[in-house]
Amino acid sequence: MHILVLGLDQKILDQTSAVFKRALEYADLVERYVVIVPSRSKKQIRQGKLEVYGSGGAIKGAQLFYLDRLAEKIARQGQFDVVSVQDIYFLARVGVRLKYQFQLGLEIQVHGIEKFNWYRRFLARLNLAQADSVRVVGKDLKDRLASQFGVDKDIIVEMPIYFDWQEWKNRPFSGKLRQQRWKDDFVFLVVGRLAPIKQIGEIIRAFAPLVYEGQKVRLVIVGEGKEEGRLRALAHELGLDKRVEFVGWQDNLVEYYRSADCFVQNSKEEGYGLALLEALSCRLPVITTPVGVAQKVVKDGVNGLVVKDSEDLTRMMKLVVVNRQMLDKFKNSTRNFLNTLPSRADILAKYKESWRQAQRRTRAQFHKLG
């Protein structure tokens, strides 16, 4: 089987990245695995059965144009079976065109649904209607695609992201972050994009009463995004400049997970939620909304706390600060739930299942057309 992937994650252009290493595993499942991503620089990498291309282009529109041209050129030269697209909007339009031009199975990957307006909703509906297989990371997305976009559940393949929590558990940790910066503070940790859907502003508001009551607490926010300016202004408005710390993206997240006292996730929606799994693998107790993978690996009162609303969030943050015995209980229970996650072999088998489904359906479709 030959697979052509239209991706979004430019980290795949770095051969030392986890994204590139995962792509090598996917390539081992097939005869040829080609990935094209939009990027400013034009780049080409070949390693074994994996080929990776950066489109080139100074602006997003140019990158999409060059990606489209390059994808057509590669599809014309090779005997591909499936085109897999990591997007439901503009990149997916390229995938739909390639499907009909070269009679390819079309797999659309859905990791989350954000940035919605009427035009994006129209594009998503249009593209999903042409898919032969739709790959999602969890049941929430599957149900939403079926109810809001009319996608046939029979073509939706649930495929969680593989997470090697044992590897995270064994990563080196110096402890300097706690010793040199945080000292005796009780540290709440947030990790993720600073986007409206993450509802980090509510976390800051929920955290404020603890500071006002004189608790020795700190809120550390790891990540970047368009909401950063608004969130910084909110922290300043609430008088929390010295207690809310914005540190941007960090390469060594283990230092933060292992040094903090509690991880907080307040997302309205999560396609999956890798940051939560990273926190649990480092035995960090969590407070979370019931979204994404949290529904499977966090049991309220056993290895974490599940939030119902903003008032609940303040109450839970106060509770974990004063109840260290409960935190110890959570730490000792976290990894029992991680053992229920699918193995690498399970995930790779799902990949092949989705590709074969796309291949079968498109063959049947074009056979009917004559």
SSE layout:
Layout: E1 2-6, H1 18-27, E2 32-37, E3 42-47, E4 50-55, H2 60-77, E5 82-85, H3 90-102, E6 105-110, H4 118-128, E7 133-136, H5 139-149, E8 156-158, H6 165-169, H7 176-182, E9 186-191, H8 200-212, E10 217-222, H9 228-237, E11 244-248, H10 253-259, E12 262-265, H11 274-281, E13 286-288, H12 294-297, E14 304-306, H13 310-322, H14 324-338, H15 344-368
Parallel strand pairs: 1-2, 1-5, 2-4, 5-6, 6-7, 7-8, 9-10, 9-12, 10-11, 12-13, 13-14
Antiparallel strand pairs: 3-4
Helix pairs in contact: 2-3, 8-13
Search tags:
370 residues, six-stranded parallel β-sheet, eight-stranded mixed β-sheet, alpha/beta, Rossmann fold
How would you characterize this protein structure?
It is built from 15 helices and 14 strands. With 370 residues, it is of the alpha/beta class. The chain has two domains: 187 residues, Rossmann fold; 174 residues, Glycogen Phosphorylase B (Rossmann fold, 3-Layer(aba) Sandwich), CATH 3.40.50. An eight-stranded mixed sheet has the order 3-4-2-1-5-6-7-8. α11 links the parallel β12 and β13. α2 packs parallel to α3 and α8 crosses α13. It is elongated and about 70 Å long. The two termini are 23 Å apart. The model has no long low-confidence stretch (mean pLDDT 91).
Summarize the structure.
With 370 residues, the protein is an alpha/beta fold.
- For this structure, what is the CATH homologous superfamily of the largest domain? Glycogen Phosphorylase B
Q: Helix segment count?
A: 15
Largest sheet: 8 strands, mixed
Could you name the CATH topology of the largest domain?
Rossmann fold
- The residue ranges in which pLDDT falls below 50 over 5 or more consecutive positions are none
Query: What distance separates the N and C termini?
Result: 23 Å
Q: Work out the oligomeric state of the chains in this entry.
A: single chain
Number of domains: 2
What is the CATH top level name of the largest domain? Answer: Alpha Beta
> Mind telling me which CATH architecture of the largest domain this is?
3-Layer(aba) Sandwich
Structural class: alpha/beta
Question: Strand sequence of the main sheet, in spatial order?
Answer: 3-4-2-1-5-6-7-8
